[in-house]
Design brief:
mainly alpha, Farnesyl Diphosphate Synthase
């Protein structure tokens, strides 16, 4: 195994451990694109881990930004698999540096902000932590059409992150984070105190469904442009969107238990989703699971 092959393999191990949904969806890409996706994910994972698990995240994030600056200007000296793989990605694809910085900005938001007042604020956060990742991946997935796919890519990232918010209400509360917008909580008479009681009230269901409907709308916007992806990327993108949207259905079937229950799509359900994709790669409809 060459140094570059090992670097990409290490990046794959990172995504396989942390995000089985993305690993499954993008595993069917051609090898060069697949490896590039693993490398970008590894970069994003390191930033995310610094914020969520770092002993001194503010300082560590500053150090990471310095490393990325050195990487971009070609002065970084390292034997890290992540940077070796990412260097190869930047050499072979028209990468968007701004998207990488936007993602870092989004992670910084978690260091200073743990409440959101409006849906607009939440969607801005979702753009920075999730849509930015989509914009990183577009030049890899669609080298010749990535500019026309920006709107759909941004919509998909926001939809996925809203889904994360709806799935992780309980986990976020344990970290003293509430991403459900205060204006939506107020609209349905839900308070932070009632959320901490971990009860699925009728008001909570209305809040949850309000955000879920927005996510589902954005999933549809994202898939409107599926035809503009190269054939080899349509199944992975549509598969990832469908797998993520399926989390919403799983939560509904579990009676909105998001306080002390982890809702996820099983490996068999993911296999079925990807199997359906292969027979319908041009449709912009999401299969329900």
């Amino acid at each position: 195994m060459t140094e570059l092959e090992k670097a990409y393999h290490d990046c794959y191990l990172t995504i396989a451990h942390h995000s089985k949904t993305f690993a499954k969806a993008f595993s069917i890409l051609p090898a060069p694109k697949r490896n590039a996706v693993w490398a970008v994910y590894s970069f994003c994972r390191e930033v995310d881990d610094i914020v969520d698990e770092g002993e001194n995240p503010k300082q560590q994030l500053m150090e990471f930004e310095s490393l990325f600056t050195q990487f971009l200007n070609g002065s970084l000296q390292t034997d890290s698999s992540q940077w070796i793989a990412l260097q190869d990605v930047f050499k072979n694809y028209e990468m968007d540096e701004t998207a990488f910085w936007d993602m870092i900005t989004g992670q910084k938001m978690d260091l200073i902000k743990n409440r959101y007042q409006t849906m607009e604020e939440l969607e801005q956060y979702c753009y920075h932590v999730a849509s930015s990742v989509g914009l990183m991946l577009l030049p890899i997935l669609a080298p010749h059409t990535h500019e026309q796919l920006r709107t759909g890519g941004i919509a998909l990232g926001i939809a996925m992150q809203i889904t994360n918010v709806l799935r992780d209400v309980g986990e976020d509360l344990q970290r003293n984070r509430v991403y459900l917008p205060q204006e939506i909580l107020d609209q349905y008479g839900v308070t932070i105190e009632t959320l901490k009681e971990q009860k699925v009230t009728s008001g909570f269901v209305e809040v949850w469904e309000h955000l879920a409907k927005r996510a589902e709308q954005l999933f549809e916007v994202a898939l409107d442009s599926i035809h503009a992806y190269p054939a080899d990327a349509r199944i992975p993108v549509k598969g990832a969107a469908t797998m993520y949207r399926a989390i919403l259905g799983k939560i509904r079937r579990n009676q909105y238990q998001v306080f002390n229950k982890r809702n996820y799509v099983t490996s068999e359900e993911k296999r079925v989703i990807l199997s359906k994709m292969k027979f319908d790669t041009n449709s912009n409809k999401l299969h329900k699971v």
